[in-house]
């Protein structure tokens, strides 16, 4: 019996090509498959840029008719790591959101802290943290949003393998993976998968079969 199904989805936003060559491109297939295995009721990501990750989640929801709500939180003004954005980036994301994923994609143009009040505690099944990458910033995002995560929920951390400049996600990741069930990819700057509030049958199976699953996403 297959413990994990790996698919070859068509990402509709590739027609625009604006987000290709971003650091998240290498994780889109896994993100798509993760949604189909977890069947989350609510996905929230902190930090969206051109939307490679957000629209991968949305594509899975659309293709399989899921009832999942997909939220993207970002100011779309940039930061010292990503650089400053011009307004065309937000306009591109907004256009893709409305044209390809109406009723699925929800954009919240605000700071992460401002968005906290939007979500009740224990309401988010899949949380993706990809904002400012200093140690202090990512630690703050993790600690402030952890109460919003549902029991047996999953947190994704991008850039756990990025060591340049003052990037500090890897430091937080080193601490967290010692405390909780954790899985990781090293390619495309690294992606950490954390279960800080316990594992579901799906994530327990992922943990037990990780070497096989990981080999599906080179």
Could you describe the 3D structure shown?
By secondary structure, this protein is an alpha/beta fold. The chain has a single domain, classed as 3-Layer(aba) Sandwich (Rossmann fold). Helix content is 33%, strand content 21%. It is built from eight helices and nine strands. The chain has helices at 28-38, 52-63, 87-100, 112-115, 135-145, 169-176, 201-208, 210-214, and strands at 42-46, 69-74, 78-79, 83-84, 105-109, 124-129, 149-158, 181-185, 191-195. Strand 6, helix 5 and strand 7 (149-158) form a beta-alpha-beta unit. The radius of gyration is 16 Å and the shape is globular. The model has no long low-confidence stretch (mean pLDDT 94).
Task: Name a few traits of the molecule.
single chain, Rossmann fold, two-stranded antiparallel ribbon, globular
Low-confidence stretches: none
Report the span from N to C terminus: 22 Å
List how many beta strands DSSP finds.
9
The CATH topology corresponds to Rossmann fold
User: How many helices does DSSP assign?
Assistant: 8
Which strands sit side by side, in order, in the main sheet? 5-2-1-6-7-9-8
Order of helices and strands: HEHEEEHEHEHEHEEHH
